[in-house]
Amino acid sequence: MYRLPLRFCSFWFENTAQGKLMLNLAFGQNKYYSDTMSVNIRRAQRQKTSQGVWSWKAPVGYLNEPKLRTIVPDPGRAPLVKEAFVLYASGQYTLTRLRETMNAKGLRSVENRVMSLSRYQTMLKSSFYYGVFVLHGEMHPGAHEPLVTKELFDTVQQVMTRRSKPNTLRLKYYVYRGLLRCGECGCVITVETQKGHNYLRCTKRRKTDCSQRYVREEKATAQMAALLASASLPDDAADWMVEQLRHEQRETDGGRDEFRRDTLKEIKRIDAKLDRLTAAYLDTGAFSADDFRKRKEESLGKKRTLLDKIAAIAEADELRFEPVIRFVNGSKQMKCVAARGEPQELRSAIEKVGSNLTVQNRKVGWEPRGAWKLVVNAGRFAQPETRAAAAAARGAGETDHLSNKCCGQDEIRTRRELLESIKAFFKDNPGWE
């Protein structure tokens, strides 16, 4: 049976011995061209990888730059990705709650779709966001701008590991469970629902005849909001303090050249060590593949930590002024959290500001933490509508030594005294926030 020839636009192959030979030659030539192109592409990818360039599709928070053929932070998504890391590192957010929060704020995937829980988990576990990436099981330093620090990334991994442990005990969720203790016997305050309302009461495990009665959750929320408002600075006072701090920051010589030089020398030493390690592995086979990857990842982790330190030093006196500025601005916002009165947000804020929360005679008491105690004790700065509640929280025997109205130089002197006290506290307690 005669078969028709195989025809194309510019050539054809007859169903003969010569036609079949030419067809096989064309197939071989095409296969050679395809394999050569694959080799060249892989070589170019290895070269870009050695330069720290990610050659594939950018993850969430980054954009592919077609002209430079690299990736850059996405101005819309990058701040949201960083916020997601910060929120999860706080330990107050599950993956489900984090997804709901960030979706509401507009975080979307590269395809502009709502991300699933697995996408959030993959994002939080990706080392790409602190400046390194893993390719074929090997870690490489990235040339892209990191969105988070190595320290923040490690904190996220610790929180994720802790949350991955099975929790067999499933209790009904209450916002204030485990937050307060009884002021009389010291037992934990539990929460229960009766007739559609939540009530806080003493468990009475140590002292069965404890005289403390229940208190409605709504009343406890209002009292905690008043306590939180007492730790808030008025806008004018906070703005004045921030302006003073910025002025001092500009006048202060923030040069830490010696430390920066030593850090750069250490980074060069690590780079040289990586070169020797790679040469020993490729040339002499001194290490196994697993041992080589382990040593390389350890060195890259140290290098990334040192680079984070240099980035922090690049800000003139950030370690000296920025924590105080953040504290002042945070104190300025506490009255807004108290005014909203949202229980979950209120609990997170009051755990940050105070400790040893107690309930006695249906009154919520606390002990302000660290620098917050300075603001609470300076009751002059509490908002007018909450001063009475703040005074009651401090105790009937204490006086509000700044409650007298002052203005002009006295006002500035009072603000300056409080600011100096806050600065002295942060100087004596570095790293406290």
Description:
- By secondary structure, the chain is mostly helical.
- The chain has 4 domains: 1-34, no CATH class; 62-163, Putative Large Serine Recombinase, Chain B, Domain 2 (Hect, E3 ligase catalytic domain fold, Alpha-Beta Complex), CATH 3.90.1750.20; 224-246 and 320-428, no CATH class; 255-315.
- The protein contains 14 helices and 12 strands.
- The strands form 5 sheets. It has a 3-stranded mixed β-sheet. It has a 3-stranded antiparallel β-sheet with strand order 8-9-10.
- A hairpin with a 4-residue loop joins strand 3 and strand 4.
- Helix 2 crosses helix 5 (150-163) and helix 6 crosses helix 13 (387-394).
- The longest helix is centred in the N-terminal third of the chain and has 34 residues, at 17-50.
- It is elongated, with a radius of gyration of 31 Å.
- Mean pLDDT is 82; it is low at 382-407.
User: Can you write the helix and strand succession as a string?
Assistant: EEHEEHHHEEHEEEEHHHHHHEEHHH
Low-confidence residue ranges: 382-407
Tell me about the biggest sheet? 3 strands, mixed
Structural category is mainly alpha
Number of strands: 12
Give the strand order of the largest sheet, numbering strands 1, 2, ... along the chain. 7-11-12
What radius of gyration results from the CA coordinates?
31 Å
Task: Write down the domain tally.
Answer: 4
How far apart are the termini? 89 Å
Percentage of residues assigned to helices: 40-55%
Shape: elongated
What is the helix tally? 14
Mean pLDDT across the residues is 82
* Portion in beta strands: 5-15%
